[in-house]
Each structure stands twice: as structure tokens, then as C-alpha cells.
């Protein structure tokens, strides 16, 4: 499926309205309007977020509450007025039907260049597709990945497209791979094929065909990623950073050692202006404590050392062990809207995150309540805005083995970023154990996208 770039750049409600006209029915192909779930006005996406949403090993997590700027679409005022007045629940549509209708609305075109956007979806620069990709094939090397873990994340990502795609229009853009004729429909078909293949092979208790490079080259388009970095064009290998969840000792009460709070925004205050009014340093200066100007606006989930909190802010998730032996995951939820500054030491960063308690490890999601469960070893964080959610990648490790995974997370280092992936390594008790686990992954490596033929 190839959708015209102009059509796909429109906000989802506009596209749905035009599609409906083209098919002679205002809501044809979309489910009847239903009540919206209780989401906040400002969504926390890991297109933005950690949920996201996912911070890198060296850079903070990212989430964005900003909605796409509505550009002049050149449609008639009556249509604009009708779209504005339409029930927002029209976004609850059938994804497959929506994609098929979008394909039929305008003639298929393959753009030669792509306009790279940032976190606010503002244009940054144009890049020719030939500068970012080239056709290739996987080398005849051993393929290594945890089959059940990959299957789980494939299924979770596929479910996210089905259940949240119409509510999260950013993931329905073709992105830079559109210059290679790869559409969102192609990405979904790739997920379906991989899920089917892995499920069949696991059920048959046989080695999966997805670890056979001959099978992959016969059934997938293999696209070499030239890792485009406009500041350093000579490096054609992808930069591979790594992120992890670390176990931290903490306390439910403030102590002399555990004296730095992990804050949560109260449910009825999730849209209040105070969230974006303070830097990290100001937020931790006592403004939320008794006697402070913002006292009562947040809850304290736990107390860590200052170093522990900085690590949690950096990685996006913390696994905290309390004195009574209980443990809890805390995941970044909303940030103060201040951008992460590359190269600035973590304690000096002004970007600040409020957390939520979670029961599983989460990746990308349009808000903190709707996220993709992820697993280590098969999950990558990447530029979901420009490269796209659910893309399948293969990288080479130091032993010249190929590792296959899926982009199911994002973070502050990827807005925009066409030259880097962040490998989710897992949960570790300390950095020494983590370093040992990731030592086989190089800093720069050849990387390939896999798309079902």
C-alpha cells in the first residue's frame, strides 16, 4: 500500500472524513462513535514517550504531549467545519479498513526525499532516501534471539496497532522508509508473517525458520540502513547504545540515606500547568513538600538516593527494593516539557519526570496507561516518529552473529535520530553485571530492516 505523502500528513480526523466521502459514507469503515476512554487532554506518547516512551543509556526518556500542528490542507471550509464538529470518537475505526481506504483514496506514490521532523513534529531537514537506505541481503551468519520473547513483543506491538492505531495517528505515517516503498501496511504485514512463522515453529518444536538467513532473504526485503547522521556523514553503521532497568534500594519513608522523592502526579491534576513550570532542580527543591507552593499536587511513591533517582530518570524505569523485602517497578509517566540536552551531565539536566507504579516493563505508548510490554534482548528503542513503530531490525554483534529485534520503544535521544538504536538489555542488580551482559554488542554495527515481500 502506498499513500500519498500529502494525504498522510493530514491529521487523522481529516483523513477519515475525506476517506468517508470517497466511499460514500461518513463513517463507513469506521466503527460507530463510542465513548472515549478517560485519557488526558495532553497525551503522553512515546512517539514521544517512555512508554515511551524509553530513555537511552546516555540520554533521557522522551514523551510528548503536543498534538500535531494542523497545517493548511486546502480543503473547503465546510469540510473543515464538519471535521471540527464531528464526534472525536470517529477516531475509533477499524485499522485494516482505514488503511485500505487511505490506499484507495489517492494514487500510490513513492517519495524520493523525506522531511525529518522533531518531537514537536516541526520540519528539520530533507534527506534523500538513497542517503539512508540501500537494497541488500543478510550475510550467511548465525541468527540469535529468544524466540518466545520476540514472539511476545511482536504480538504486543501488533495489538497496539489494532487497538490504538486510530487514536495514535503518528504511528500510521510511513516515515523515512516510505522512500523505499515501505508503508505502515507493509510493516503490519511483516509483523503478521513473523508471528505466524514463529508460532508455527514453536508449536512444531522445530528450529524457527526466522533463524535461517536463506529463508529470510527469500521471504523478506532486506534494506541496509546507512545510519544517516547529518553531522557526521562518513559513518554508515548504526550506533548501538544500551539501556537497562537497575535494581535500587529505597524506602517508603524519607531517611538520611534515602532522601530524594520519586513523585507521582495526582490523578485529578494531570493537566495542571505546574507540571511544566519547574526544572528538575526546582521540583526537587521542596516545592512539593509541606509548606512549599505546590504542596498537595503530587504523591511521593518512594525515596531513593539522589544518584538512584538520577539513574531512574536516565533509564526511565527503576526496580526498587524496600526494607520489608517488597519490590516495585516505577516507570516515567510525564515530563516537564524541557528537552534533554545531549552532552550535559545528568545532574545538570533540567528535564524532569514524574513516575507511576507499574507491574511490567513497558515500551512505547501514546500515554502512560497504554504501553507496549517489552522484553530484553529483542526490543530496540528508536525514532518512532521518523522510522516508525514495529519495524524489524537485524544487527551484527562482535561475534558476527545476527540479532533480530523490533522497534517497540523510543526516547529523548531519538527526536529526531536516523542513525541510532537503543538495545534493551534487561534488569540488573548493578552496572558491572550489566556491562558484562552487553559486552558482545559493539558501539557501531551494520544494521538491516526486514520487510515481508
Fold and architecture overview:
- There is one protein chain.
- The protein has helices at residues 5-8, 12-22, 77-85, 95-105, 147-164, 184-203, 213-219, 280-283, 306-315, 431-437, and strands at residues 113-117, 123-128, 133-136, 143-144, 220-225, 238-249, 260-265, 298-304, 317-321, 327-335, 353-358, 379-381, 392-396, 402-409, 420-428, 444-445, 447-452.
- With 453 residues, it is α+β, with helices and mostly antiparallel strands.
- Among the domains are: 5-48 and 65-121, no CATH class; 245-358, Barwin-like endoglucanases (Ribosomal Protein L25, Chain P).
- The strands form three sheets. Strands 3, 4, 5, 6, 9, 10, 11, 12, 13, 14, 15, 16 and 17 form a 13-stranded mixed sheet that branches. The chain has a two-stranded antiparallel sheet with strand order 1-2.
- Strand 1 and strand 2 (123-128) form a beta hairpin.
- The longest helix has 20 residues, at 184-203.
- It is globular and about 65 Å long.
Q: Could you write a compact summary of the structure shown?
A:
The chain has 453 residues and is α+β, with helices and mostly antiparallel strands. It contains ten helices and 17 strands. The longest helix is centred in the middle third of the chain and has 20 residues, at 184-203.
